[in-house]
Design brief:
About 35% of the residues lie in helices and about 25% in strands. It has about 375 residues and is of the alpha/beta class. Helix 2 links the parallel strand 2 and strand 3. Helix 6 packs across helix 7. The protein is globular and about 70 Å long. The chain binds adenosine-5'-triphosphate and magnesium ion (MG).
Length: about 375
């Protein structure tokens, strides 16, 4: 009997996920399908422990779906749990397990695009995810999630007013753009900036989160410094284009996080704008910004290249229209961004296994 992976995936698309209202394929539970002659082995990974009933029913559902179409196949389903949680960060934001900053050297290389698609990707993998737009000078997140002009609610918690993050695409989101008018943000300086960062961290009603993604402005200014002084970052995802001027600046920015007194691990690198393929010639790649910068930066950081994102008009369009491209029905884009999210999870898991939790930096101004 000849059966291939895509046939099996089509069948498994009909098997409901036990944890969220999607199929196990859409919920990205399938990590491996191994077919050898009459035997099929499927490895499914869940982000929390399943009870015995859930385990039996998912086993049964996979086997009966496959045997319904291919009666002779010997189907083995392996269920694994990969914990959502690493180690709890000490101090503030106890309810948040991992805090990931998205940084770059140069501006305009795609940090906000990476932050928003990564956050939605993590959410789609089943992780509870939040997003802080820490680009106080040029907040893009309200536009990217269609939240322009919206104001967060204030609630009273033990006599103190707290800000309730807005909700979009299944994420809890906060941005300076929800709080001050855009033309006022540019005049924010040192202590005022630190105050707002603290407000975002300590005076928001963040729910329990597996991941909190922080979209940074470019470079290494007050905001980066304030962030590492305010929260223990799990790590940083660096964004660069392939070109030399971008990765040279990225190394400088990265070195701030790697200062012994700061000591925030670099989780990996996303290379953005890696190539351009005209829609009429999808197999043709034009390397407009050169080649290899992402891998070079990753090697320099002793970290992984988490993914390469081509230049695609739809990325810009979706960013402007309020819904990150990963949430569209563009299959190749979904795949690229979901892989980046999965690779980030793997890098965070590895970091949490191998390294001590980060401590906030105590720098006297
Ligand atoms: N791969 C891509 N293909 C096409 N357009 C892209 C791509 N990545 C980003 N863009 C577009 O380029 C512009 C800059 O991207 P983005 O805002 O994410 O960069 P940034 O690094 O956050 O910029 P800043 O430094 O100003 O915060 C946006 O209009 C975005 O939609
Ligand atoms: Mg940005």
């Amino acid at each position: 009997m000849k059966v291939d992976k895509s046939q099996l995936l089509d069948i498994l698309r009909l098997v409901p996920d036990p944890l969220i209202a999607q199929s196990i394929v859409e919920a990205h539970r399938i990590r491996e399908i191994d077919i050898s002659e009459e035997r099929v082995q499927i490895r499914l990974v869940f982000t929390q422990n399943l009870n015995q009933d859930q385990k039996s029913s998912i086993n049964f559902a996979c086997m009966s779906a496959i045997n319904g179409k291919f009666p002779g196949l010997d189907v083995h389903v392996h269920l694994e749990t990969q914990l959502r949680a690493g180690e709890k960060a000490p101090g503030i934001l106890q309810q948040v397990t991992n805090i990931i900053a998205v940084a770059s050297g140069k501006g305009g290389v795609g940090k906000s695009t990476v932050s928003s698609n990564l956050a939605v990707g993590l959410q789609r993998l089943g992780y509870r995810t939040g997003l802080i737009d820490a680009d106080f000078y040029g907040p893009s997140i309200p536009t990217m999630f269609g939240l322009e002009g919206q104001k967060p609610k204030l609630v009273d918690v033990h006599g103190k007013p707290k800000i309730v993050p807005l909700e979009a695409a299944g994420l809890s989101i906060i941005s300076i753009g929800f709080i001050v008018e855009p033309d006022q943000a540019v005049v924010l300086r040192g202590p005022r900036l630190a105050g707002i960062m603290k407000q975002f961290i300590e005076e928001c009603t963040w729910p329990e989160l597996d991941y909190l993604v922080v979209d940074l402005p470019p470079g290494t200014g007050d905001i980066q410094l304030t962030l590492v002084q305010t929260v223990p970052l799990t790590g940083v995802v660096m964004v660069t284009t392939p070109q030399k001027v971008a990765w040279i600046d990225a190394i400088k920015a990265m070195n701030m996080f790697r200062l012994p007194s700061v000591n925030v691990p670099i989780l990996g690198v996303v290379e953005n704008m890696s190539w351009f393929s005209p829609p009429e010639l999808p197999d043709q790649k034009y390397y407009l910004f050169g080649k290899g910068g992402g891998q070079y930066l990753a090697t320099e950081a002793d970290a992984k290249l988490l993914g390469q994102v081509p230049i695609v008009e739809a990325i810009r369009e979706s960013g402007d229209s309020g819904s990150p491209i990963i949430a569209s029905d563009n299959k190749s884009m979904q795949e690229i961004w979901m892989d980046i999210a999965k690779n980030t999870v793997a890098a965070v898991d590895m970091r949490n296994k191998m390294q001590e939790p980060t401590r906030t930096v105590d720098i006297k101004n």
